[in-house]
Q: What sequence folds into this?
């Protein structure tokens, strides 16, 4: 009967140094006159039943003799060996074990049992983490001649700097482990020199035939932009901002 065949399979395994119910079916180290060949449960039972009256069990896609089933069990994937890096060197690992499942229990068996049953071996190595690492991307510097003057012959040019991760612009916190490139620097600009800009003279404030003073506004500006330049003209001769003037002729009232 099938139960007797099952008992025979267990006895056969025990005599050769391993037990299908002890957690792992191994090959055993017992030497026979003829080197043992890998056998699964179906083969053990078939060796006992050679009569044509016994239906030949089928092993296909993990199916074995009635009450038995082989299947692969895998462990969870390990962490990736790298979080990023486009060099293709990232990988993760897992283990695959063949399981013999019965009606109310299961045991780990040699992987060859699942292979003999025609079950594809699961992948145990997979690529991962092969994306570009976060990095700072810098744009071109602005032209120095068009940049804002900073001091004599010195302008302050700027550039855009942003964090990029996996091909997209990201929050700067993603790149905080790397030093951020500078976004501004000084450059030589010959147009950055101060010149005096003077406004027209005001009217003389003297009465007729009298003596008075007139004024004009004076401002230091950058030569290139004509924008206020602070004290950039301090080394230049300072034009006069007021001078003495004579009032207009008096008009007499004659009858």
A:
């Amino acid at each position: 009967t099938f139960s007797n065949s099952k008992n025979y399979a267990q006895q056969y395994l025990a005599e050769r140094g391993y037990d299908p119910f002890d957690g792992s079916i191994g090959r055993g180290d017992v030497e026979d006159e003829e080197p043992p060949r890998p056998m699964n449960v179906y083969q053990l039972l078939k060796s006992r039943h050679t009569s044509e009256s016994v239906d030949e069990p089928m092993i296909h896609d993990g199916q074995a003799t009635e009450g038995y089933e082989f299947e692969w069990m895998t462990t969870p994937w390990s962490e990736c060996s790298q979080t990023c890096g486009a060099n293709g060197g990232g990988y993760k690992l897992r283990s695959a074990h063949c399981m013999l499942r019965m009606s109310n229990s299961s045991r780990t068996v040699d992987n060859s049992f699942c292979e003999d049953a025609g079950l594809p071996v699961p992948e145990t190595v997979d690529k991962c983490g092969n994306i570009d690492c976060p990095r700072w991307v810098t744009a071109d510097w602005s032209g120095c001649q068009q940049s804002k003057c900073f001091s004599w012959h010195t302008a302050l040019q700027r550039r855009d700097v942003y964090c990029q991760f996996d091909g997209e612009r990201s929050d700067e916190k993603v790149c905080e482990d790397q030093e951020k490139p500078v976004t501004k620097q000084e450059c030589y600009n010959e147009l950055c020199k101060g010149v005096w800009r003077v406004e027209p003279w005001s009217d003389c404030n003297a009465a007729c035939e009298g003596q008075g003073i007139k004024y004009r506004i004076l401002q230091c500006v950058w030569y290139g932009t004509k924008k206020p330049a602070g004290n950039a003209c301090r080394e230049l001769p300072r034009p006069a901002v007021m001078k003495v003037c004579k009032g207009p002729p008096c008009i007499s009232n004659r009858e």
Remarks:
- The helical segments are 2-15, 41-48, 111-116.
- The radius of gyration is 47 Å.
- The longest helix spans residues 2-15.
- The longest strand covers residues 69-74.
